[in-house]
Amino acid sequence: MPSTGPRRALDLVVRIATPADVGVLSELGARTFRDTFAADNRPEDMQAYLVSHFSPAHQEQELRDPQRFFLLAESAGTPAGFALLQAASPEPGVPGRRPLHIERLYVDRPFQGVGTGAALMRRCMQEARARGHDVLWLGVWERNFRARAFYARWGFSEVGETSFVLGRDTQRDLVLALPL
Q1: 2 assigned to some structural domain
Q2: Is residue 116 part of a domain?
Q3: For residue 74, is pLDDT > 80?
Q4: What percent of the chain has pLDDT over 90?
Q5: Cα 129 to Cα 62: distance, rounded to the nearest angstrom
Q6: Which of 32, 151, 166, 176 is catalytic?
């Protein structure tokens, strides 16, 4: 009898996304962002952010940006999570000569707790090193305790703070960094 739940992390494939993945990234991105933050934010702010950041047109623009690349985790062809990385100027306090920004890292609910996030983080680290980066950094909402615990387990430490705008709501993000 086939399993109806997610596959073990060992069955995951993490690959670099291509322009053909626009629809998958748009749907997966909107769903995982909504699942993570909708309960703690106003519906109108959530909707405004989803429309502006997870439309197929926006995803295509990010996929074609030479400073960015997506990692897509799949289990038996089913999208399980993704990360978006960007070689851009870091927030103040981020160490290193060539930092790489983890702009997004999200795991779909059915694939949480089975190593999907760990597989994505390992690949983020591999890609960063292979591309000559010496530090990974990211912003995480101060109220996203699950994500903060995940990043702490990987050795990220707080190096500053920044603002994140969700619709009309300006929120406080902690800036975390991990020297490689």
Answers
A1: no
A2: yes
A3: yes
A4: 92
A5: 22
A6: 151
Q: What is the mean pLDDT of residues 74-99?
A: 95
The pTM of this model reads 0.91
- Reply yes or no on whether the pLDDT at 88 is more than 50: yes
Distances (CA, A) of 104 to 8, 11, 86, 122, 167: 23, 22, 10, 15, 17
Q: How many CB atoms lie within 10 A of CB 146?
A: 10
**1-5 long-range contacts, Cβ below 8 Å, gap at least 24?**
5/110
Write the pLDDT tens digit of every residue in 92-149. Answer: 999 999 999 999 999 999 999 999 999 999 999 999 999 999 999 999 999 999 999 9
Of 160, 122, 117, the closest CA to residue 142 belongs to: 160
Is 106 assigned a catalytic role? no
Q: What is the CATH number of the domain that holds 15?
A: 3.40.630.30
Q: How many domains does the chain have?
A: 1
Q: How many CB atoms lie within 10 A of CB 154?
A: 15
